[in-house]
Amino acid sequence: PTGLHHPPTGVRRRGVTVALFTGCVMEQMFGRVNRATLRLLLANGFDVLVPQDQGCCGALLVHAGQPEQARQLARANVAAVASADLVINNSAGCGCAMKEYGHLLGTPEGDAFARKCRDISEFLGEVGLTATPAAHAGRAAYDDPCHLCHGQGVRKQPRDLLAMVPGLQLVAHERPEDCCGSAGIYNLLQPDLAAEIGRQKVERLLAARVDLVITGNPGCMLQIDSHLRAAGHSVPVRHPVELLLPPE
Q1: pLDDT for the residue 3
Q2: How many angstroms separate the CA atoms of 243 and 136, rounded?
Q3: Pairing of strands 86-89, 117-119
């Protein structure tokens, strides 16, 4: 998404202005998800800021033991979204990192920023949808990103929202909260172990006989998709926001 301010296409509500955090991996690998997130927020009545001065959340630097470089990024992001009431993200890893800015920065500004951060499913689960999602027939499994379920305690909201998609049948699979093997930079540092974890994740998903896999983190999307392909399957992997969009 480009441009600073986007007025809602649906009926404006609550007087809330949200900033959309676009991230780096999500924008580069799944730019369509950022655009879908913007469209979803606008359709549901929210004014959206897309700050041009935002940057990487710093999560991977924290994972790599480089907190001072992460702090520089965090300070820039705090300044970039100062005018927004809430900061909405669609990447579980980014969201988890940004909710810890208070600890990372050790400042009142960091604490205030962290309190404004919401995952898109957490936010829409709280305020509700005003735009009915387009119908999507098929069997789908929602797989919990570790940084969303364990890191942020967001489990029920994505499933409740997906249950509102006409025709979509959510099916259970074994151990949905187990890691997929992506885990920040773990798949780069421990590729053999990460690959085995990914293989087991895909095995459980395929056992549920799904037509679609849904998960809310770019690392998870990449990992699960690559192991589905390696197993010879073409089951698509999508972000929840892509299923929640109203008809065009």
Answers
A1: 57
A2: 7
A3: parallel
